[in-house]
Amino acid sequence: MSDDSLRRIAEALERMSPAPRPAPDFAAAAYVWHTEPDRLEPVVRINRVDVGLLVGVDRARDTLRANTARFAQGLPANNALLWGARGMGKSSLVKALHGAVHADFPALKLVEVQREDLPSINRCLNLLRDAPGRFILFCDDLSFGHDDAHYKSLKAVLDGGIEGRPDNVVLYATSNRRHLMPRDMIENERSSAISPSEAVEEKVSLSDRFGLWLGFHPCDQDQYLAMIRGYCDAYGVAIDEARLRAEAIEWQATRGSRSGRVAWQFFTDLAGRHGVRI
């Protein structure tokens, strides 16, 4: 094949596969990891609440805040798994604590990674390895199904392989499942395996690789009402205590559940009825 033919083939391949975008200047506080092409998209406005508005998660808040502050200072810190009841503020806590610690340590950045993009996580780590700043990789609502091999990619962050996890990267993940997979799947695989003790070890042990396990449990009625009262005080919604209590309890009864998410949804409705912007 002639040199001219090779040149034309190379040019055609280059047009089909555009060059990767240049790395960002890392001036933003937060980014979202995207693929095709690989890039870190800056987030102009982070969707979060003040950490002081999160009620009923004091132990998890204090533990994760201390871990985050140490990491921001360049000290050793653990990967963290926030697991438990739906709507109890797991992802809200990660974003709120990033905002609180970032105020004192501007070099602390938040990078959100979608679960379906986990196979590309090594490429993301390579981009962050020599980047200025400290990076919290944040994966929300993390879980794995029966034939889901994405968990293997996650080991690149937790164990780091031969290169090791970059010193400037830590992983915070949230999940409704402590072991990141359904309990019935664990039991099914154990019951049908030749060696039950080893059947699901690879998947179940993934959660063991997180240094911090922070559990979130359903709130009681007093905590639910305290959340709503905190929102009212913070955003200036004036309402009689007895009326607030009656409306809030009726709201949670119609939803059939009580959680931080339900409290926020009620407050959103309440603020709208009172003409208060949030």
Describe this structure in words.
- There is one protein chain.
- Helices cover 46% and strands 13% of the residues.
- It is of the alpha/beta class and 278 residues long.
- It folds into 2 domains: 30-216, P-loop containing nucleotide triphosphate hydrolases (Rossmann fold, 3-Layer(aba) Sandwich), CATH 3.40.50; 221-273.
- A 7-stranded mixed beta sheet has the order 2-1-4-5-6-3-7.
- Strand 4 (108-112), helix 4 (121-129) and strand 5 (134-139) form a beta-alpha-beta unit.
Secondary structure topology:
Layout: H1 3-16, E1 30-34, E2 39-42, H2 58-72, E3 80-84, H3 90-104, E4 108-112, H4 121-129, E5 134-139, H5 150-158, E6 169-175, H6 183-192, H7 196-199, H8 201-208, E7 212-216, H9 221-235, H10 241-255, H11 260-273
Parallel strand pairs: 1-4, 3-6, 3-7, 4-5, 5-6
Antiparallel strand pairs: 1-2
Helix pairs in contact: 2-3, 9-10, 9-11
Give a quick precis of the structure:
The protein has 278 residues and is α/β, with parallel strands linked by helices. The protein is built from 11 helices and 7 strands.
